[in-house]
Amino acid sequence: MTILEAIKAVLSKEKDGLTCKEITNQILSGKLYTFNTADPNSIVGHSLRRHCRGLDFPSAHPVKHFYIVSGKRGTAVYSLIESTFTASGDDIPKKPPVSSASDLLPEEKIQKYYNEHKDSIKSQLLDMILNNDPSFFEHLVVKLLLALGYGYGTDAGQVVGKSHDGGIDGIINEDKLGLDKIYIQAKRYASSHNVGCKEIQAFSGAMKKVTKGVFITTSSFTKDARKEVLEQVGKQIVLIDGALLTDLMLRSGIGVRCVQTFGTYEIDTDFFGTA
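RESULT FIELD:
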């Protein structure tokens, strides 16, 4: 019997679910699995969370056998998805309750802190943009779109700013002859100043015969602004708010540099013949 089979055997008899420690104790008392470690609870916990619905981290397994019932005992309580008690799946929560720090696997903690790190960097990016002048932002968004693969090459982008009538801030030429263009509007606004419907209408009017446009802001768009984009006829306008902007900057390496990388690992069960 594998560790996964042992866990399933224990949980198949428990309607209300068990904590990781309780599952470990039942496996030990029933001699369902032989642990060659001083900390069997960590082995059980790793298998539980890797196969738990709603938990997503690098080494999580795509096949799920368990779900978290609750955390009301101060730690996660697990139940079996295939159990006759939950065969319909109706009582399985779509999102698991928040697990305590003691329940998290090391790789889950890495993912958690990595996400917090990214959020911090994204916030710093917005601060740096807002502390620069509008011209800097116009050059930044053109460089970003080129880095994302728009345009025929690295020199396909152009910042026009006030020199272009209609208030277009940048142009991306998708071919060398400039027959197909993307117009860019860049608004460097504080988070409290959202882009409204009238600004989308003005941008759409400035596009004239150009059918593709990108409106980028450091703040957000109002509901009416997003509705206006959906109602445009003959024009495609993409909205990029501050959150998406900084996410794209991270992905493209614009304004940031990677200083260190870490790898996460999982056991190759095929190698050991225990799959």
